[in-house]
Amino acid sequence: MSAPSVLLVTRHAPYGASLARSALDAALAAAAFDRPPTLLFLGDGVLQLLPGQDASGIGTRSHRRVLDSLPLYGIDTLYVDSQALAGHDLTAADLPPGARPVDDAAIRALLAGHDHILGF
Amino acid sequence: MVLHTVNCPPSHPALGQCLRLLAPGDALLLLGDGVYAALAGSRAAAELAASGAALHVLDVDARAAGVLERLADGVSVCDDEGFVALTERYPRQQAWY
Fold first, then answer.
1. What's the rounded Cα separation, in Å, for the pair A115 and B3?
2. What is the pLDDT of residue A56?
3. B19 to chain A: nearest residue by CA?
4. pLDDT at site A52
5. Under a CB-based contact definition with an 8 Å cutoff, are residues B90 and B7 in contact?
6. Mean pLDDT, to the nearest integer, of A90-96?
7. Is domain B2-96 given the CATH code 2.60.40.10 in the classification?
8. What is the per-residue pLDDT across A17-71, written as a single tens digit (0 to 9) for each?
9. Which of A73, A120, B28, B32 could disulfide-pair with A23, CB 3.0 to 4.6 Å?
């Protein structure tokens, strides 16, 4: 039996609440057990991807920097809500390497196509 | 097929995201403040009906909110056991809050 696939859906901006950070912690924990999840950035979750973050002034780590380190942990499948990207005037050039913008039909296929969904 | 649970009020952007991604064959359960999207004649109820998803509302929350009295057509009322049954039928779940 192959390992169950996990889709991790992250829908919140990085610093206003702990949800985005918790999503990353969950992703890293799953990867540590050889279950690297697929990540889907939805709605305001795409704001986690803004380049040029410097969180030193608020006493935390740059969220984008942690995101950029995910391939080191075997997490290299990132999907991004293309409608939300456009809504915030972000483009594919702003995204970490390998992150793929997806439309609503593709997002529905991601939701239906994984064995488990973890929502943050 | 995905079970979507919604516990935010209709004006919350999470409901809009849910509506974008609901697919025919999915199920949706309204609970907490989410039950207001089942108000007959409301815009949210019309948009949910157009999604083609199976619509459910949690009985205690809908009753508490006064929504049970004016429930939109096509929305079925479910109790806690029904909620559990939904989670068995739809192993994939996405919570909108």
1. 13
2. 87
3. A104
4. 87
5. no
6. 92
7. no
8. 899 999 999 999 999 999 999 999 999 899 899 998 988 888 888 999 999 999 9
9. A120
Report the candidate in A30, A38, A39 with the shortest Cα–Cα distance to residue A10: A39
Residue A62: both structure tokens together: 């740059």
Q: What angle do CA B34, B39, B41 make, to 5 degrees?
A: 140
Contacts with B, A 74-93, CB within 8 Å: 83
ipTM: 0.74
Contacting B residues, span 3-32, partner chain A, CB-CB under 8 Å: 13-14, 17, 20-21, 23
Average pLDDT of the residues of chain B: 95
Residue B85 has pLDDT above 80, yes or no: yes
Helices B43-50, B13-21: axis angle to 10 degrees equals: 20
Cross-chain residue pair A117–B92, CB shorter than 8 Å: yes
Instruction: State which CATH number among 3.10.20.90, 3.40.50.1460, 3.40.1260.10, 3.20.190.10 fits the domain covering A6-119.
Output: 3.40.1260.10
Q: Spell out the domain ranges in chain B.
A: 2-96
Q: Residue A1 above 80 pLDDT?
A: no
